[in-house]
Amino acid sequence: MRPLDGITVLDLSRLLPGGAATMLLANFGADVIKVEAPGTGDYARTMPPLLDGEGAVFALVNRGKKSVALDLKDAQGKDAFLSLVSRADVVVESFRPGVMARLGLDYQTLRARNDRLIYVAITGYGQDGPYKGMAGHDVNYMALGGALDITGSEGGPPVIPGVQVADLAGGALQAVVGVLLALTARSRTGEGQMVDVSMLDGVAWLLPVALAHYQGGGVMPERGSGALTGRYACYHLYRCADARWISVGALEPKFWAKLCRALGCEQFIPDQFAEGERRTEIIEALSRLFESRAAEEWFVHLKPYDVCVAPVRNVAEVMRDFGLGQAETVVVPKLSATPGHLGGQPPRLGEHTAEQTGGERGCQQN
User: Which of 89, 167, 196, 201 is catalytic?
Assistant: First the structure.
């Protein structure tokens, strides 16, 4: 028994945000049916690197789903889709505003077919506003949403993060939250609703600390200048003897004191948030100290002291630590009574068309 057993999701999205969202729903029991264009399917299917002949990103975010190939510009394909909508609980799409309306498949049209339907639209900039028609990708949403401006080293340029923050935290996770909230509301009202997920809004939602400093103290956040972005020695990254890095997050005074004692630097305890030359002196002293051992050696040495440190691990090491194999990802969150789990292999394009549509015209059969 999983929490979303019995919930059917039609996924029209392509690439990462929608696919990651519906993967999370599938992990917890939802029957996710990808609705893809005949012949091409999800663009991620052909994006390198390839894994067993198919895009590795596609494989990672589409396990345990089904695939139906429908031409939504064809009358029969559209009818087949509407038949699926009649028995679906959720539709997820990631087109620009207006695309579904031009296909004659917008929320109001689908609602007329199924008033219990939850319709999720994931877009870069939302359904209205000055940017709604613009094309964009993760870096653009991060830039316009203010996150890139505060990401990077002090005095340096903005840095593109190594993960797709807007796509995943601002888009996929917000979509999942929206689905769960709408399902809860439907259990009380009996009716579905539209969920408007703007990745730009999702990025702005990630800025409570920066916004608080600006609104509360009139301080414009700058790269590397905040307590949580590397300004002080207690919350910093240090290069080690093996050219690897170790992270220090000893933000609370008790953790800072423990770290200083473990490193033999008790003289720095009173000056955790010192400014000026003293701040520079402490950072430089700890930098020299950390360069005397390898990152993993420091981790082993400091772990017993309860001091908020961790080595900067690479992807191969993360796969090892989590026991991940090919085309696997971490299943979160962990539920004690109704846990989620990864499904089987990702579907071949159109693999389940006949099963789901009964072989109507406008549908690609395998």
Answer: 167
